[in-house]
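Entry:
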Amino acid sequence: MSQGSRLPIATPARRNKPRLRLTRWIGLSVFGAWVLIAIFGPLLAPYPMGAFVSDEIYGGMSAAHWLGTDYMGRDMLSRILTGARYTVGLAVVAALLSSLVGAGFGMLTVLLPRWLEEGIRRIFDTLISIPSKMMALVMVSAFGTSIPLLIIAAVLSYAPGAFRISHSLATNLATLEYVQVARTRGEGRFYIAAVEIMPNMIQSVLTDMGMRFVFIVLLLSGMSFLGLGVQPPAADLGSLVRENIGGLSQGALAVIAPALAIGTLTIGANLLIDSLSNSRGSQKE
């Protein structure tokens, strides 16, 4: 080999790019499909969600019922297409509110007086010490089950984690020169938080919100499996698993299909979040 020739050396970040792109597209496709199902699923359902369409319970796949029938002879495909709206919709709303509350307080507290910042931190530290399922169970036991209450329980459970991450990021950003210059100019706290700090932590906040979405899906599905989530005649994916659990010994699609739906939804979201996080890390390198 001549002295002037050089072979290109692939860095770890460059070697990982094809894998990251593949992971991102798989995650985006799976998660995007479930978002579309949540939006248009009820319109695509071949039968009304609660319609009794067959005399056969726990029926298998057929031309009339692609995912079989449930314990009451209802079409499972229609119930999953309709129930996904509750699972995805409630999780998206709760994740957005959790991130808004957590990130909002996380940014503002670093600009508040020390005693007020300490008080807000203590409140969120107290909330984060309570397990999410325990908090949800206590709230449901005290106030009954309803969709607004499920959202509030999820927000109270996961906003403290979002607060802790955003507060740590905002604390580091608040020491940088451009934030100090804005303070010297006499800019207000809300301006500094919204214009100087938020744009530089938005990617991390969005990634964290994606993780909150996965946690909330599992929380709400677990609550529904216990019979404390979405109540009949409505149903989400977790309640579809619970009401058909008697068909598990028969390997019925009525219990396997909604369980796989929850699994693919969370896996798709995780793959998408993981690829976005890794690509951001590669860009920094």
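The chain has a mean pLDDT of 86.
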